[in-house]
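Lecture notes, unit on binding sites. The following record was shown on slide 14. It pairs a sequence with coenzyme A.
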Amino acid sequence: MAEKKAGGLAGIVAGETAIATVGKAGLGLNYRGYSIYDLAERASFEEVAYLLIYSDLPTEAELDEFQARITSKRELPKSLLLVLEQIPADAHPMDVLRTGCSALGTLEQENNNQYDVVERLLATFPGMLFYWHHYQQHHKKIKTQTAETSLAGHILYLLHGKAPEEDMRRAVDVSLTLYAEHEFNASTFTGRIVASTLSDMYSAVTAAIGALRGPLHGGANEKAMELIEKFKTPAEAEKKLKDMLSNKEKIMGFGHRVYRESDPRSNIIKTWAKKLAEKTQKENLYSVAECIEKVMWDEKHLFPNLDFYSAIVYHCCGFPTSMFTPLFVMSRITGWAAHVVEQRENNKLIRPGADYVGPEQKDYVEIQSR
Ligand code: COA
């Protein structure tokens, strides 16, 4: 009898990568050899993006040029604006980015210029989302260029229509660094599979967005916020969460396929969640979240992943909950792109096998006789 395989490819090594190490010895996260702790504390997201896309940290001159290229690529083509205007107001913002990415791929095809495509998507995702958002919600056609040089500042400016306060900008900047890359997660692996057929960068990224959308992956940050907001007090959270657990419900924003004891990104973002909750007088939300964290640990020995406290950071910055996963896209495009480039450098079609568990061979029966 065939040996039973681990579900969901758990524990299976599916290839090599030089981009990130996740959960070595149960914890830790490095991007191209640099610890996430150092990067989140000392680097800007743009440095991290450059590191992932171009394999090394930039010099000052390289960073200036990179940032200038990104900021100069923020305008959206007119026909893309028309496409965005057709997307209904009640569409999910992830579908807006998935459609926007695919539509841009029809207007500016990839012709041996993979880095141009990556930089263009990095520059335009915020404009795509917020152009659609303001058009549908406020009947306004906004400009997708701002004076903000950082991606975090640009995103916040597009949301609020004014320059952000520095602590909010930096909190979003750190979250983008934490979300940028995570080895062979579901969306990145999706992107690599598409790239392995020798398809184009837009197709790989469009498919990756689709994979990220689900609540077992990127969509968990939205579900985490919905959960936290359900409870008025920590006491209510404790009681109702225990009920949910006894009903065997999954609590989004907890647990991880690779990390076993903690998610190294969670403590970093938690510090920012506390800071912004105090600043915006949302301490109660933070207390409820901490209570959920304690109950999950005491009852299930499960720890918060990055999505849990990121939800509070984004909420305190004023983002609607349905935009949380799109913010993840705006960062993870860097990791996806790095993996597509790496896959292309040493490509082999990704096409695993399966154990057949269906019926034995049968004789075909004519339709009239069935
Ligand atoms: N809430 C409640 N129980 C959980 C849980 C959660 N968030 N995560 C795992 N578990 C439990 C499962 O119910 C299962 O229990 P069982 O063995 O009694 O059936 C056990 O822990 C193993 O979980 P499983 O889902 O099989 O492990 P996995 O490696 O496939 O899970 C995740 C990884 C991330 C999919 C899972 O932890 C999860 O669904 N988390 C919530 C979604 C989320 O936050 N995703 C973002 C990840 S960064």
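Take-home: The chain is about 60% helix and 0% strand.
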